[in-house]
């Protein structure tokens, strides 16, 4: 197999693990991170480091981005030193961050105007799955572009689902995280209620985790909330972002996500209480401190 030149921009909790998978699979890799220190480990492992998104993407046939939000993504692609200032003809741009459909659609148009093609490929799976190459990619874009990037996606994933044209991956990801955010907020309310009720916490919680409400997410988060262990897997402030994006996206299609708004209230309260940089399990903390 001949390996295309790849650039990877954004080396946070998810991007760091994903870039290491690409390097380990043999892709010639150049990386960029806004805070340069986060690129040091990959540089030591053999990746080249670009000083700007544009420099990192110079000559790359495939350019990945995995950053926080719409603002960060716009900076990476369209900022003063952004990738789109100078892309290789025919390059495939792969946006893996969780973003609004409106921004992804704008980005796809900007990429096409400069001779590139955008694929949106947000992921499910968290820090451990990123490091182990076990993510699930939710892909929007042309079938031809997907085939060009498939070997690179395969190095980072357990599954690749093609969901439609550009923007489709972003849309499904927001639906997915809406449901996840509501589950986490509901679990936090349930556990805080159990804790002040005089029940045996472990026994009561086991009824939930071993019964119908025990989704994989609820099981994981129940463990972290009870420990408590708020080591970031998925930052609380990023779930807050995702719920906000889901509510706005649904509203554009005339839908009101009542349960997402209630969950968002819980997540915003935790951000206001100073828990934004912790794992989303910390959404329970303000509830433990108050009785409403
Ligand atoms: P993270 O650890 O906070 O990393 C965020 C990355 O974005 C960092 O590289 C950060 O650079 C960069 N960034 C932030 N603002 C920027 C800006 N204005 N300009 C340039 N770069 C900027 O977050 P993460 O957990 O890796 O999440 C990345 C994306 O994946 C998010 O969209 C998130 O919603 C999504 N996601 C996360 C998970 C998860 O479980 N963690 C799962 C699925 C999807 P610095 O290092 O300089 O701050």
The low-pLDDT segments are none
CATH class of the largest domain: Alpha Beta
CATH fold name of the largest domain, please? Rossmann fold
| Radius of gyration using CA atoms only | 20 Å
**Helix and strand element order:** EHEHEHEHEHEEHEHEHHHHHH
Q: Give the domain tally.
A: 2
Counted by DSSP, the helix tally is 13
Structural category is: alpha/beta
Q: What's the count of strands?
A: 9
CATH 2nd-level architecture of the largest domain: 3-Layer(aba) Sandwich
| Average pLDDT rating | 97
- Give the overall form: globular
Strand content: 5-15%
> Helix amount, in percent?
40-55%
Hetero groups in this structure are: NADP nicotinamide-adenine-dinucleotide phosphate
Largest sheet: 6 strands, parallel
Measured between the Cα atoms of the first and last residue, the distance is: 61 Å
Biggest sheet strand order reads 3-2-1-4-5-6
Question: What do these coordinates show?
Answer:
- The protein is of the alpha/beta class and 292 residues long.
- It folds into two domains: 6-165, 3-Layer(aba) Sandwich (Rossmann fold), CATH 3.40.50.720; 171-289, N-(1-d-carboxylethyl)-l-norvaline Dehydrogenase, domain 2.
- It has 13 helices and nine strands.
- The chain has helices at 13-25, 40-44, 53-57, 70-78, 101-113, 127-132, 143-154, 168-195, 201-209, 216-226, 236-252, 258-272, 285-289, and strands at residues 6-9, 29-32, 48-49, 62-65, 92-95, 117-120, 123-124, 135-140, 157-164.
- The chain has a six-stranded parallel sheet, with helices on both faces.
- It starts with 5 loop residues before the first strand and ends with a helix.
- The model has no long low-confidence stretch (mean pLDDT 97).
- NADP nicotinamide-adenine-dinucleotide phosphate binds next to α1, α4 and α11.
């Amino acid at each position: 197999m001949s390996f295309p030149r790849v650039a990877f921009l954004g080396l946070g909790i998810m991007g760091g693990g994903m870039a290491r998978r690409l390097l380990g699979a043999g892709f010639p890799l150049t990386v960029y991170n806004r805070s340069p220190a986060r690129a040091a480990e990959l540089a030591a492992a053999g990746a080249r480091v670009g000083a700007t998104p544009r420099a990192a993407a110079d000559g790359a046939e495939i350019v990945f981005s995995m950053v926080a939000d719409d603002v960060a993504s716009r900076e990476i692609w369209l900022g003063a030193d952004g990738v789109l200032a100078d892309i290789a003809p025919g390059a495939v741009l792969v946006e893996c961050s969780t973003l609004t459909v409106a921004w992804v659609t704008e980005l796809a148009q900007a990429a096409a105007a400069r001779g590139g093609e955008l694929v949106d490929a947000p992921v499910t799976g968290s820090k451990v799955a990123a490091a182990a190459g076990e993510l699930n990619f939710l892909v929007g874009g042309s079938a031809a572009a997907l085939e060009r990037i498939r070997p690179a996606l395969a190095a980072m994933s357990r599954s690749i689902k093609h969901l439609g044209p550009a923007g489709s991956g972003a849309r499904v990801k927001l639906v997915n995280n809406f449901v996840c955010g509501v589950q986490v907020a509901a679990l936090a309310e349930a556990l805080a209620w159990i804790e002040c009720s005089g029940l045996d916490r472990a026994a009561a919680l086991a009824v939930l985790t071993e019964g119908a409400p025990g989704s994989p997410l609820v099981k994981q988060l129940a463990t972290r909330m009870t420990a408590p262990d708020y080591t970031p897997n998925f930052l609380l402030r990023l779930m807050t972002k995702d719920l906000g994006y889901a509510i706005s996206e649904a509203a554009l299609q005339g839908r009101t996500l009542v349960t997402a708004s209630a969950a968002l209230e819980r997540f915003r309260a935790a951000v206001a209480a100073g828990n934004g940089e912790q794992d989303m399990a910390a959404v329970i903390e303000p509830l433990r401190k108050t009785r409403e």
